[in-house]
Design a protein that fits this description.
mainly alpha; 19 helices; 72% helix; membrane
Length: 419
């Protein structure tokens, strides 16, 4: 079984992991994550789920200052699509061997060219095209503009200059025709789509790509499939989330930003299934929801090997670090643990999905907490309700029940080996 997995699955996972487009998307969103996390924490502080919190700060600082601080963070997320576009061009350009700031500038100008404008000269442009609704087009423009620029550079379309021209000037003019080629392509695209029923690239992407993908991702079946694949691949020594995030991450990122935008302005939060749903309410202690496994190991195991491992890995597991479990028990190629390792996250996903759909727990607000935030605290902060913590406790306990017979069997095996 192990040889077949290494022969068939590992090469496929390696190709997916090393694919330059998927790799660039992962890197781009990972680059933005710390920034979004810090800003989210400031938003959380301003909207802390304690009665009277907002009125306390308003009385202390005054309404004007509180509103100024709040609007500052709203303004940042109104341009999240533009930020995604810029970072996407930078990471993809680097991965395609293009150095310097030029690919990023090409992409930003291409992105701005596609923005629909009013017929009135000098009118304002709505930030709706720069915010969460611009994430998908930001990714696509970042990829396509850099690829067009790279294509034109490889064709060596440049202006022949005499040797008397200084090298610095010559080098800058070398990129003039490739730069102009990319701009021309995007102007043509915008003009053609302006003559169709779509009117703009944004409407085309929104109708044909963004809405179907978000609808597909914003479903219980989608998240069950995500957690199943992520856990199943770990059994064969493949980092499952690295594979699944290549496909799901842009969708979940967009859904999360929708929730965060609504939360900031006090509107109804639209989506159940976001990145916070996956991270906070389906896997506790890391992939396989191994915090439940560790608690069972510490409570019932009698073998020295399991007992020592459980005590060593429990504290890191509370903070979401489960490599000691995955490689220490181990989970990889271990059928006795592999079965619950796959089952528990799927069960948690189904239960959480049903609980949220029945509105027994408020939806996640889109605030990105540090990935090391332990359960109970994360459930409360991500939903603004203590009911989120109750749901987490219930699922951790249920996971313990699922893991129990398998840990018991493994414990007996290890005791015999030790004797």
């Amino acid at each position: 079984m192990q040889e077949q997995a290494e022969k068939n699955l590992i090469p496929i996972s390696t190709k997916i992991t090393n694919n330059v487009v998927l790799k660039s998307m992962r890197e781009a969103l990972s680059t933005l994550t710390p920034m979004i996390m810090i800003i989210s924490l400031f938003i959380l502080i301003g909207n802390f789920p304690i009665p009277g919190w907002a009125s306390f700060w308003q009385s202390l600082l005054g309404n004007n200052l509180v509103e100024t601080l709040s609007s500052s963070f709203v303004g940042i997320f109104n341009f999240i699509g533009l930020l995604v576009c810029a970072v996407m061009a930078n990471t993809y350009g680097n991965n395609r061997g293009l150095k310097g700031i030029t690919p990023c500038l090409v992409e930003l100008i291409a992105f701005l060219i596609l923005i629909p404008m009013s017929n009135q000269i000098g009118s304002d442009v709505s930030t709706v095209y720069f915010g969460p609704n611009g994430i998908f087009i930001g990714i696509l423009v970042g990829l396509s503009s850099v690829e067009l620029y790279r294509f034109s550079l490889n064709k060596k379309w440049n202006i022949k200059l005499p040797d008397s021209i200084p090298p610095a000037v010559a080098n800058s003019l070398t990129e003039l025709l490739p730069f102009g080629f990319v701009i021309l392509i995007f102007v043509i695209v915008k003009t053609i789509l302006g003559l169709t029923g779509f009117q703009s690239v944004h409407n085309l992407i929104f109708i044909l790509i963004q809405m179907p993908l978000k609808g597909l991702g914003n479903s219980l079946i989608s998240v069950v499939l995500y957690n199943f694949i992520a856990s199943f691949l770990w059994i064969f020594g493949i980092n499952g989330p690295t594979i699944t995030n290549s496909f799901w991450s842009p969708i979940m990122f967009s859904l999360t930003q929708d929730n965060l935008s609504a939360f900031q302005v006090g509107e109804k939060i639209p989506h159940i299934y976001t990145q916070q749903f996956i991270d906070i309410f389906t896997t506790y202690g890391g992939g396989g929801s191994t915090l439940s496994l560790l608690i069972v190991v510490v409570l019932i195991s009698k073998s020295k090997r399991l007992k020592s491992l459980g005590k060593l890995a429990l504290v890191p597991g509370i903070f979401g670090i489960n490599e000691p479990v995955v490689f220490g028990i181990p989970v990889i190629f271990n059928p006795k643990i592999a079965i619950p390792f796959v089952i528990v996250p799927v069960v948690n996903t189904i239960i959480s999905g049903l609980v949220f759909s029945f509105h027994w727990v408020p939806y996640t607000t889109g605030v990105m907490l540090p990935w090391t935030t332990p359960p109970i605290i994360s459930g409360w902060l991500s939903t603004g309700s203590w009911l989120g913590s109750v749901l987490q406790l219930f699922e951790i306990a249920l996971g313990m029940l699922v893991y129990y017979p398998f840990v018991k069997s493994l414990d007996k095996q290890y005791i015999l080996e030790e004797e």
